[in-house]
Amino acid sequence: MLKKLFSPKTAPKTPKNIVVVSGLPRSGTSMMMKMLAEGGLEVVTDALRTADDDNPNGYFEFEPVKQLGAGDNTRWLAESGGKVVKIISSLLEYLPREYHYKVVFMERELQEVLASQQKMLKNRQEQSQVEDAEMRAQFEKHLSAIKYWLARQPNMEVLYISYNQMLANPQADCARVAEFVGLPLDVEKMLAVPSKNLYRNRAKSA
Questions:
Q1: 85 has which bridge partners?
Q2: 84-121, pLDDT tens digit by residue?
């Protein structure tokens, strides 16, 4: 009886990995989401936040992601296998452990992240309550902690992608992403997304 119940024909199928694009805000996560969408992955998004001058390719956000910390609305993850969702790095620790995730983690020079944030706040006529030096220190501490944590999660695989290098040599990084995701992707369409026109907040050389 047990052999019948647990035979290969009747055993439950292993769900597909959930692809997660993560990183600090303003680190290139929206660009990577656009690349994966162009490559053929289905995106988990509600499209409530539309494209603007700060993100010409769109934000690819999904409102329930912001509630992960509350832990009361994660049912959508059961339908997200083989799809891609954007989740900022500070929320990764709240992802349920019963799923397996492929995390594409975007990295960007912190000086540029801070400059991009300042520009976005200016466009919205808002002002940061934290000085850049303090914010940089917070980011560095957070990145160190989250990388340490990610390396110890048995249900998460991580690929770190440099936003700066992606724009300089997209061919190599697109191939790495496609191999890591392990799903059929149109690399040529992905390559059409990275553009130096998006690189508006390059750190000024000393």
A1: 20
A2: 999 999 999 999 999 999 999 999 999 999 888 778 76
- CA–CA distance, 91 with 107 (Å, rounded to integer): 16
Q: How far apart are CA 192 and CA 189, in angstroms?
A: 5
pTM: 0.83
Residue 166 per-residue DSSP state: H
| Backbone dihedral region for residue 157 (phi beyond 0: left; psi -120 to 50: alpha; all else: beta) | beta
Helix and strand counts by DSSP (H, E) for the chain: 7, 5
Q: Are 112 and 48 in contact (CB under 8 A)?
A: no
Compute the distance between CA of residue 15 and CA of residue 79 in angstroms, rounded to an integer: 9
Instruction: List CB contacts of 132: < 8 A, sequence separation 6 or more.
Output: 114, 118
Give the separation between CA 196 and CA 202, rounded to whole angstroms. Answer: 10
Task: Decide: helix, strand or coil at residue 92.
Answer: helix
28: left (phi over 0), alpha (psi -120 to 50) or beta: left
Distance, C-alpha 124 to centroid of its chain: 24
User: Could you please report the per-residue DSSP string of 98-151?
Assistant: TS-EEEEEEE--HHHHHHHHHHHHHHTT---SS-HHHHHHHHHHHHHHHHHHHT
Q: Which of 90-99, 126-135, 187-196 has the lowest mean pLDDT?
A: 126-135
